[in-house]
Specification:
This protein is α+β, with helices and mostly antiparallel strands. It has ten helices and twelve strands.
């Protein structure tokens, strides 16, 4: 039976989306952002993308154009994407921070622990919650890498890979270990099978390291403009080949637990003078927040490092 990705609507519960992510490593939320709002965001990126020639080397097959520093482009990206309540509810449930980010969420009264194990892949397939006491797995999470990507006409399939590969060999692949990264890819244009919709192997976050995806185990994140596909740090994924004459545009960022280094240096990507123009919760998610043990700065408020310590 061909692989498929479970689809949800904007009014579905975050808990159901999170359950699909634990089980399959991927989930789609259709039309979470109105198409006209997405068009406005893509228009803000077009000047940067238009200045580039397709490139990307072997990793993207020489047929991609990409930008970084997403949240420095315009506050609209934080307001419409990063701070979307449903995405933060899913991230809170999936990454389990001690200090959650969703509106109205309350901090956990228990301390977080790193490296929680003691459950297996079969347990997750059966829907078993690997950590039923809800013990936090990080103090908070933050933006890992953020940008946009266009898969240009004629581009081949990208090699399937895992986001957690960036931390190899310091963190080896372990299907039983709690996930550290949640990836979010918004459809800036319609994602179709023909124009390179992201290829994802559902369930591959539970596979052993040596197992590779067979063609029938790979699905494409086909979805209309304004939709969102989540996937986890341990699931196989890659851009699809674009067999059309047009471009497929995505706006992509990932969230990572606070105790791992970020792929993109957000303090340079979104320096303080730009970050101060964003909502405070966006500042925190970009990285201007500390725990009591990691990332602190003497004299600065741990909940917002852009401010002096609150008294």
């Amino acid at each position: 039976m061909p692989a498929s990705i479970e689809n949800f609507g904007q009014h579905d519960k975050a808990g159901d989306i999170t359950a699909a992510l634990r089980r399959d490593g991927v989930a789609i939320v259709r039309e979470l952002l109105p198409a006209d709002e997405m068009d406005s965001l893509v228009a803000l990126l077009d000047p940067d993308l238009d200045r580039q020639q397709p490139g990307g080397g072997e990793f993207f097959g020489h047929r991609a154009r990409s930008t970084g520093r997403l949240f420095a482009h315009d506050p609209a990206f934080s307001e419409h994407l990063l701070l979307n309540p449903l995405t933060l509810e899913v991230a809170d449930a999936f990454l389990r921070p001690q200090v959650p980010a969703a509106p109205g969420a309350k901090p956990s009264g228990s301390s977080y622990r790193v490296g929680a194990t003691g459950f297996g892949a079969d347990d997750i397939r059966r829907g078993y919650d690997p950590d039923p006491d809800q013990t936090p797995y990080c103090h908070h999470y933050r933006v890992n890498a953020a940008g946009s990507i266009q898969i240009c006409g004629g581009g081949p399939d990208q090699v399937l890979h895992r986001e957690m590969d960036n931390y190899w060999p310091y963190m080896k692949h372990d299907p039983a270990r709690h996930e550290c990264i949640l990836q979010l890819a918004w459809a800036g244009s319609d994602y179709t099978a023909e124009n390179g919709a992201t290829r994802i192997a559902p369930g591959s976050h539970l596979w052993e390291l040596e197992r590779k995806a067979e063609p029938h185990e790979v699905a494409q994140a086909v979805m209309p403009k304004g939709s969102l596909v989540f996937w986890t740090g341990k699931v196989f994924h890659g851009a699809g080949g674009n067999r059309t004459d047009g471009n497929r545009t995505g706006i992509i960022y990932s969230l990572v637990v606070d105790w791992l280094a970020t792929e993109e240096n957000q303090y340079l990507a979104v320096p303080p003078e730009i970050a101060r123009m964003l909502p405070e919760r966006a500042q925190q998610l970009i990285g201007y927040r500390a725990s009591s043990r990691i990332g602190w700065v003497t004299g600065r408020d741990g909940q917002n490092l852009l401010q002096d310590r609150r008294t």
